[in-house]
Design brief:
The complex is a heterodimer of chains A (288) and B (65).
Chain A lengths: L17 E5 L3 E2 L8 E7 L7 E2 L13 E7 L3 E3 L19 E3 L2 E3 L58 E3 L17 E3 L19 E3 L60 E2 L13 E5 L1
Parallel strand pairs in A: 4-12, 9-10, 10-11
Antiparallel strand pairs in A: 1-13, 2-6, 3-5, 3-13, 6-7, 7-8
Chain B lengths: L1 E7 L2 E8 L2 H8 L2 E5 L10 E3 L4 E3 L10
The chains are: A mainly beta (288), B mainly beta (65).
């Protein structure tokens, strides 16, 4: 029987350099001779929810982060952060980003009731009122994902499960809102009712989830590579993104926006004059 | 930069950022429509070409506990 000699893997340094940081969809120009690139790709963050006059809103989940060696291709899609909402309801999911063979899902929206689960690696949004948070994405192969925090009408909301893509914290009408789970992509924080404790902070990680809010308080967004924003009365802070910090919530005005690079937006309550925090936009880094 | 809804029929399947509509459609190979804060879009929204308005999906009924 013949034999095949497998070449030794080079132990030499790759000398990779960050060549391109791409923040919008469209054409990608790759120099002649470059056939493989190392890509880091992030989806858009989910936006926070808005809730009723006695209950705050929940934070949005962080966008997914995926990375790897891929064939160089000439176009990319960069997911937009979920848009702010200005009336009662869920936030918006972040958009998916894609490049070559990679796809990074958007973070789930904060829920007026149940938080929205993340997809394709995105983290789940926090839960509103007494409802559960959203689960982290279950579609990331070989990686764990966070379970949703349990909402409650009698005790504090549950913390979202930790994982590659974390779960959102549960909301509570009786005690503190649940903290978003920690992970590569952090979950959104849960909301809380008037006078019943603190809202849930966004989950921390490489990309932070948005903070939840009550009518009388607001929780910080989770820290990512950059810091999460601080909360204020009725407004959660935005989650820290991979390329910029989350914005602070502005008291009785609006939830903080998630930082660019996938941070989740902060929740807000209905008397806020501007709306909930938008999710941060995604990004593509190319090394070669 | 502007934000665009990626359409499949009248359903929004993704939301993206791009410099121009041409770039957005080139990258997605789909029909894209710009959205704004006053007429915002999200995944799962529907688009009415006649009015140019996006409509959010009906809330799933998940009773508040």
């Amino acid at each position: 029987m013949g034999s095949t000699t497998i070449p030794a893997v080079s132990s030499g340094q790759q000398n990779l350099t960050l060549r391109q940081t791409i923040t919008s969809s469209g054409a990608v120009t790759i120099p002649a001779g470059v056939t493989q690139v190392y890509a880091i790709l992030i989806g858009g963050g989910g936006s926070g929810s808005m809730n009723g006059s006695s209950t705050g809103g929940a934070g949005g989940g962080a966008g997914a982060l995926v990375q790897g060696w891929v064939p160089a291709t000439s176009t990319c899609v960069i997911g937009s952060g979920g848009a702010s909402v200005t009336s009662l309801g869920n936030g918006n999911n972040g958009g998916n980003s894609s490049y070559s063979t990679l796809i990074a899902g958007g973070g789930g929206a904060g829920g007026q009731a149940t938080g929205v689960a993340g997809t394709l690696g995105g983290a789940g949004g926090g839960g509103g009122s007494s409802s559960n948070g959203g689960a982290g994405s279950a579609t990331v192969l070989n990686y764990s994902f966070g379970t949703a925090g349990t909402g409650s009408g009698s005790v504090a909301g549950g913390t979202g499960g930790a994982g590659y893509s974390a779960g959102g914290g549960g909301g509570s009408t009786a005690a503190a809102g649940g903290t978003g789970g920690a992970g590569i992509s952090g979950g959104g924080g849960g909301s809380v009712n008037t006078g019943n404790g603190s809202a849930g902070t966004g989950g921390a990680g490489l990309i932070g989830g948005g903070g939840g809010s009550g009518t009388s308080n607001g929780a910080s967004g989770g820290a990512g590579v950059f810091a999460g924003g601080t909360g204020a009365t009725g407004a959660g802070g935005g989650g820290g993104g991979y390329i910029s910090a989350g914005s602070n919530g502005v008291a009785n005005t609006n939830g903080g926006n998630g930082g660019n690079g996938g941070g989740g937006g902060g929740g807000a309550y209905v008397n806020s004059t501007s709306g909930t925090g938008a999710g941060g936009n995604g990004v593509l880094y190319l090394y070669y | 930069m502007a934000t665009f809804a990626v359409l499949s029929g009248d359903l929004v399947t993704n939301v993206i950022v791009a410099d121009t509509l041409e770039n957005a459609e080139l990258a997605t190979n789909s029909v894209c429509i710009e959205y704004t804060e006053d007429n915002h879009a999200g995944i799962g929204y529907s688009y009415d070409a006649k009015s140019g308005k996006f409509t959010r999906p009906a809330e799933t009924t998940d009773p508040v506990k």
